[in-house]
Design a protein that fits this description.
The complex is a heterotrimer of chains A (about 300), B (about 425) and C (about 350). Chain A has one domain: Orthogonal Bundle (ABC transporter involved in vitamin B12 uptake, BtuC). Helix content of chain A is about 75%, strand content about 5%. Chain A contains twelve helices and two strands, in the order H-H-H-H-H-E-E-H-H-H-H-H-H-H. In chain A, strands 1-2 form a two-stranded antiparallel sheet. In chain A, strand 1 (about 130-135) and strand 2 (about 140-145) form a beta hairpin. In chain A, helix 1 (about 1-30) packs antiparallel against helix 9 (about 190-215), helix 1 (about 1-30) crosses helix 10 (about 225-240) and helix 2 crosses helix 10 (about 225-240). Chain B is α/β, with parallel strands linked by helices. Chain B has 13 helices and 15 strands. Chain B has a seven-stranded mixed beta sheet, with helices on both faces. In chain B, strand 3, helix 4 (about 130-140) and strand 4 (about 145) form a beta-alpha-beta unit. In chain B, helix 3 (about 105-115) packs parallel to helix 4 (about 130-140). Chain C is mostly helical and about 350 residues long. Chain C has a domain at about 30-275. In chain C, about 75% of the residues lie in helices and about 0% in strands. Chain C has helices at about 5-30, 30-55, 65-85, 90-95, 110-135, 140-160, 165, 185-210, 215-225, 225-230, 235-260, 270-285, 290-310, 310-330, 335-350; strands at about 175-180, 180. In chain C, strand 1 (about 175-180) and strand 2 form a beta hairpin. Chain C is globular, with a radius of gyration of 22 Å. The chains are: A mainly alpha (about 300), B alpha/beta (about 425), C mainly alpha (about 350). Chains B and C meet through helix 1, helix 3, helix 4 and helix 6 of B and helix 1, helix 2, helix 6, strand 2 and helix 8 of C. Chain C: This is Urea ABC transporter permease subunit UrtC. Chain C: GO terms for molecular function: branched-chain amino acid transmembrane transporter activity. Chain C: It is a multi-pass membrane protein.
């Protein structure tokens, strides 16, 4: 029993990490249909921001909390810059965007290597995040790591913030208008170029926040982005492009699936099974879990 | 479409096919069984007043993290030797090639070093996969490779000198140590590639013969950074110790998860065989303090030779750069080659091989001796404990250098391993 | 323009390429460099398929590594069995495995005819299976790209996990013979090069025939406006499927010939990064132009070897920059530069000899 509960919670916490790294993509890829391979390097930028801040703010907890908004701004700025320099020229060519941003990701990785060195760097986690909470006591206790709870809370907060921005604010209305019908939005007086850039800023900024969270559970190095980028894209594709709820559901489902399979088989087998399941699922439902209904033929 | 163009196109197609057939037929060479021309091995070019050696390491890609440090210590050794007069009166000229963490590239660059640069010997490679990729190249061309990393054993190429530990100088002593401490229930965690899988096979065999039990065996793909499930499994298994053969980035995620799960070095120690000083620095002693490692050398190893090595390395590459076991083995390998060449009075690989048996060197890890039969080294095994300062402190050593036994022939429990 | 003159150009180009590959290169290059060229030509073979499927058909072929790997492993499995000799297991199985006989899925590859056919047919079958569903359901663009990458990742992880039967991360190494010929012999290495060069030329000719046929026109039409093609009564799914399957077969053949040329096939050649790299070469050279794609593929791998030796760190910046400039600012690749120059020259000529009615 404890095992099942424990694995379910592990799955949820894996799902929370997936959700955080994919959330920014749900905006840039899901809403704007841009395959940004450099998204992983924006996550990396967030993680390195935490590292740099920790050098000037000695208190680990304080520096982590400060890192969240700073990483959002750093990665967001990188994203807006990328959009302005390159991506706005490529909106109609998705594969070209993929390859161009892959080139960008290569360069950012090398840049990180030149600035911070090729080996991974370390950050200290604050003491209140290294322990764990006991949910069920007894001989076979079920414990949950504080860092995982923190990431789960962060993911939920980020989803709520993004969803309410999209639904309630004028910016969100403009983004939705551009996604649904770019030409109509343009003639209605919305500056689509500015909306694109803002959306890209927010999406990339969310990658920065994911980067801060990843410092608690994984390595911080030049290749950390490439490790997670494909998983992040898969979450969006399976969830359905342009659908936040699809992203949320799929992140948690994949997380639990992965953790259950890992427990009963091995990590490698679980990984292959999950990928094959995704390919099979997309054969059956190519538009993902939820689809955005449009009147276009394609 | 005009008819002329159709006719022409037919003609060029058939012409191309005919050309292909002619070339394919005329270019056929010797059959497998015929005496090939492979006997004429690429001769090393030692005519000038320098002798070229190849340095074959990944300078880019995922393995660059580790392999650049090996290249640096190889260069340090070469500089020292050149400053003291070179080898047989010739200065060593290193030719550095990038294996780019890609195995076919390693094979390609090895060929280049041997055939184009005509080096007298090559130093480098890290992963077993890269060694397996270059092994046929060195064997076919009858050229020497010095391989500086601990590995999974079960190999003995006539053209490779293995200056890192084989299994009976690292894994078996680590198991002996655990057994002596009464830690008899083990959990095995490793990255999914050759070294961990082979190492775990040996551990299984050892456990069977020594009354130890293996409670679980888990592999994660290389580069995998999600370890919460594995940490749960380890915790649930109630083992006495974890034997860790994870590589690279995975270690960071594993130890962070390990600590989060409430597991400590006291309650459930981890013995790692791929975590050296460089890795400790990037994982953080916050997560590692108190855990065990098994190597043949630590930066803290006592002795004048090591003091000199550490001092020279830091002077050349920076105070904050640690030295580690593979770096030491690489540094040692250049000096060993020099001693072999000087004993043979020749750069000819066959003569160097013939002269290799019994060569000793006062290495930073202590005295090492070349075993000519296996082309491995006699090395001292050491268990170390990771300190809060990021350095590794020796807690046990084998007392004297252990004879290399790559196929574990001297261990009855290992009889059906290879 | 004189129609005869227009159709002579490709013939002349083809003959020129044949002379370069079969006469100039073997004479001018050392055995070692010729071996490298053989490796580059294998990449170019993949690029021919990419030119067809992506350049002409608009399909996002990001999983070519899978097909390259299937072809390569099919060939290497046969060669390993042949090296081991009848009744023996390949060396790595004895080392890492416990089995005393070949796994069932290895056995058919002992037959050379089966293995040879499998190098091309296996990738084509997998591509057909994948493409059938994907194109029928009108999965487009981004989805297809991500799907291909997931497949590439899954295949690579699976291969790595099966160390006892696939060699794991090491892959299949140390391949000694090629259908009875000793690969150690420089003469035989040269023959392998000639076979690869001939195969490349044959694939180029095949792709050219396809591109200039009715099917080729249809493929471009599907790329540019799938709906219109559907309204005209064609099924775009079938049109796409053919291009995708042919490209997969070409990648498989390239993988199969890569094995005797390099003597190794490993999961490192299959995953996401190599799959992207296959596409990049074609993109830099010019995806829609056969010549551009082939030269681009050769050029990019050559530059990687040559420049990474000199500047391992700076090379990454240069590589990134090359992709960005070529793709963002030259969508037709370097091949389009030639077209631009030609157009500019034509415009200048037009400006001097003003022909009434010709100005568009």
């Amino acid at each position: 029993m404890t095992v099942i509960l424990g694995q379910t919670f592990t799955g949820i916490s894996i799902g929370a990490v997936l959700l955080l790294i994919a959330l920014g993509l749900s905006l840039t890829f899901g809403q704007m249909n841009v395959i940004n391979m450099a998204h992983g390097e924006f996550i990396m930028a967030g993680a390195y921001t935490t590292y740099v801040l920790q050098k000037s703010i000695s208190d680990a907890g304080m520096s982590l909390l400060v890192a969240l908004p700073v990483a959002f701004l750093v990665s967001g700025a990188l994203g807006a810059l990328l959009e302005w320099l390159l991506i706005r020229r490529l909106y109609l060519r998705p594969l070209d965007t993929l390859l161009v941003t892959w080139g960008v990701s290569l360069m950012l990785q090398q840049l990180a290597r030149d600035i911070f060195g090729a080996p991974n760097v370390q950050t200290r986690a604050p003491d209140w995040l290294t322990g764990n909470v006991t949910l069920i006591g007894g001989a076979d206790p079920l414990t949950v790591a504080n860092s995982r709870l923190f990431i789960l809370g962060l993911a939920v907060a980020a989803v709520v913030a993004l969803a309410s921005t999209l639904r309630l604010t004028p910016l969100g209305r403009r983004i939705r208008a551009v996604v649904q019908n770019r030409d109509l939005a343009e003639v209605s007086g919305i500056s689509t170029a500015r909306v694109d850039r803002t959306a890209f800023f927010v999406g990339s900024g969310l990658a920065g926040i994911a980067g801060v969270a990843l410092t608690l559970v994984g390595p911080i190095g030049p290749t950390m982005g490439t490790n997670v980028i494909i998983d992040a894209f898969l979450v969006i594709v399976v969830g359905g492009i342009g659908q936040l709820k699809g992203t949320v559901i799929v992140a948690f489902v994949l997380g639990v699936l992965q953790s259950v399979l890992e427990y009963s088989t091995t990590v490698s087998v679980a990984k292959v099974l999950v990928l094959v399941a995704i390919v099979a699922f997309l054969q059956w439902r190519p538009q993902g879990l939820y689809t955005l209904r449009t009147r276009s033929l394609v | 479409m005009s008819s002329a163009s159709i006719i022409l196109r037919r003609r060029f197609l058939s012409g191309g096919l005919a050309l292909t057939a002619v070339v394919a037929l005329s270019a056929c060479g010797a059959k497998t069984d015929a005496a090939g021309s492979s006997d004429e091995a690429a001769q090393a070019d030692v005519s000038g007043d320098t002798v070229k050696v190849g340095l074959l390491n990944s300078l880019s890609g995922t393995m660059a993290i580790s392999e650049v440090t090996v290249r640096d210590s190889l260069k340090l050794a070469i500089d020292e030797i050149n400053a003291s007069g070179g080898v047989l009166g010739k200065k060593i000229q290193p030719i550095s090639e990038d294996g780019a963490s890609d195995w076919p590239t390693f094979a390609e660059k090895a060929q280049k070093l041997i055939k184009e640069d005509r080096v007298a010997a090559t130093f480098g490679c890290w992963t077993s996969a890269s060694r397996k990729a270059v092994k046929p190249v060195f064997e076919k061309n009858k050229s020497l490779l010095f391989y500086p990393v601990q590995y999974e054993g079960l190999e003995q190429s006539p053209y490779i000198f293995y200056t890192g530990a084989t299994t009976n100088q690292q894994i078996v002593p680590a198991l002996d140590y655990l057994k002596s401490k009464g830690l008899k229930k083990l959990y095995l965690v490793g990255s999914d590639y050759v070294f961990p899988r082979t190492a775990n096979k040996i551990i299984q065999a050892y456990a069977k013969a020594n009354g130890m039990t293996i409670l679980g065996e888990d592999y994660a793909p290389l580069g995998s950074t999600e370890f919460s499930t594995i940490a749960n499994k380890v915790k649930a298994a109630k083992a006495d110790a974890v034997f860790n053969t994870l590589n690279g980035d995975s270690n960071v995620a594993f130890f962070k998860e390990y600590k989060s799960a409430g597991l400590t070095a006291k309650s459930l120690p981890v013995v790692s065989v791929s975590i050296a000083e460089e890795e400790v620095k990037s994982i953080g002693s916050q997560y590692l303090a108190g855990q065990l490692t098994a190597w043949n050398y630590y930066q803290t190893t006592a002795g004048a030779a090591n003091e000199k090595f550490v001092k020279a390395y830091k002077a050349k590459y920076g105070e904050d750069k640690p030295t580690s076991d593979p770096m030491e083995a690489a540094y040692t390998s250049v000096y060993l080659w020099k001693a072999m060449v000087e004993k043979a009075k020749s750069f000819d690989p066959e003569k160097v091989k013939a002269a290799s048996d019994g060569i000793t060197f006062d290495a930073p890890e202590g005295e090492v001796t070349v075993d000519g039969a296996t082309q491995h080294l006699y090395k001292t095994a050491r268990i170390g404990e990771i300190g809060t300062d990021g350095l590794i402190k020796e807690v046990w050593d084998s007392g004297k250098p252990i004879e290399p036994d790559p196929y574990l022939k001297g261990y009855s429990w290992a009889s059906d391993l290879s | 323009m004189n129609p005869l003159k227009g159709s002579l150009r490709p013939v002349a180009g083809f003959a020129g390429a044949a002379v370069l590959l079969f006469a100039v290169a073997p004479l001018a290059l050392t055995d070692f460099r010729l071996g490298l060229l053989a490796k580059y030509l294998c990449t170019a073979m993949v690029a021919v398929g990419i030119c067809l499927a992506w350049g002409r058909g608009g399909l996002l072929t990001l999983g070519q590594g899978v097909f390259f790997g299937l072809g390569g492993y099919a060939m290497a499995m046969h060669l390993k069995i042949a090296d081991a000799g009848p009744g023996n297991l390949p060396d790595f199985m004895q080392l890492y495995g416990t089995a005393t006989e070949l796994p069932w899925w290895w056995r058919p590859f002992a037959n050379p005819a089966f293995a040879l056919a499998a190098t091309v047919l296996l990738p084509m079958a997998v591509a057909a299976l994948l493409g059938l569903f994907v194109f029928r359901r009108r999965v487009k663009g981004a989805y297809f790209a991500i799907l291909s990458q997931a497949l590439a990742a899954a295949f690579a992880i699976w291969l790595i996990g099966q160390q006892a039967t696939t060699g794991g991360t090491n892959g299949l190494t140390d391949i000694q013979g090629f259908f009875g010929y000793d690969l150690d012999d420089p003469v035989n290495q040269r023959t392998v090069y000639f076979i690869i060069a001939a195969a490349l030329l044959a694939l180029i000719a095949l792709a050219r025939q396809l591109i200039h046929s009715r099917y080729g026109e249809l493929l471009v039409a599907v790329r540019d406006s799938e709906e219109r093609v559907r309204f005209l009564g064609y099924d775009p799914a079938n049109v796409k499927l053919v291009a995708y399957v042919v490209a997969a077969g070409m990648a498989g053949l390239a993988g199969a010939l890569f094995v005797p040329a390099v003597g190794i096939i490993s999961p490192a050649m299959i995953g996401i990064v190599p799959s992207i790299e296959f596409v990049i070469g074609a993109a830099v050279g010019g995806r829609a132009s056969l010549v551009g794609a082939v030269l681009g593929a050769i050029g990019v791998v050559w530059a990687k070897t040559a420049l990474s030796e000199e500047f391992p760190a700076a090379w990454t910046y240069f590589q990134g920059l090359l992709f960005i400039v070529a793709l963002a600012f030259l969508p037709g690749g370097l091949a389009s530069l030639a077209g631009m120059l030609r157009r500019r020259r034509a415009r200048q000529r037009k400006a001097t000899v003003v022909a009434v009615g010709e100005a568009a």
